[in-house]
Design a protein that fits this description.
By secondary structure, this protein is α+β, with helices and mostly antiparallel strands. About 25% of the residues lie in helices and about 25% in strands.
């Protein structure tokens, strides 16, 4: 069980080395993670967002929906995504969408003290 995708609780937690830190080192909070990302056309965005809203990745200083040309990139919570993938595929079957895993770097500003 070495993949970050297999344990989403650990994926979204700050790095272990920052626990008990007495002198703040913001660089120690940097962590590279894999996030499930849904790509949807602008025209279908409203409908897609209605379906995926409970699965959005909600973190401090992170916009879960971002523009990328004529598409929108929607970041999903890794744990909820894995559990609910079959339901999402069934619900979104009429929409043209693409799901992939995106590498993202989190830092000090993404976690609450």
């Amino acid at each position: 069980m070495s993949s970050d995708k297999s344990n989403p609780t650990d994926v979204l937690a700050p790095p272990v080395k920052v626990h008990g830190m007495t002198i703040l080192d913001r660089d120690a909070f940097k962590k590279e993670i894999q996030i499930p990302t849904l790509f949807v056309s602008v025209e279908k965005m409203k409908l897609a967002l209605k379906v995926v809203k409970p699965y959005l990745l909600k973190m401090r200083n992170l916009q879960p929906v971002q523009e990328e040309g004529n598409q929108r990139k929607i970041f999903l919570h890794p744990g909820l995504f894995n559990e609910k993938m079959a339901h999402l595929e069934q619900t979104l079957k009429d929409l043209p969408f693409n799901v992939s895993w995106t590498s993202m770097q989190l830092g000090y500003e993404n976690w609450t003290p």
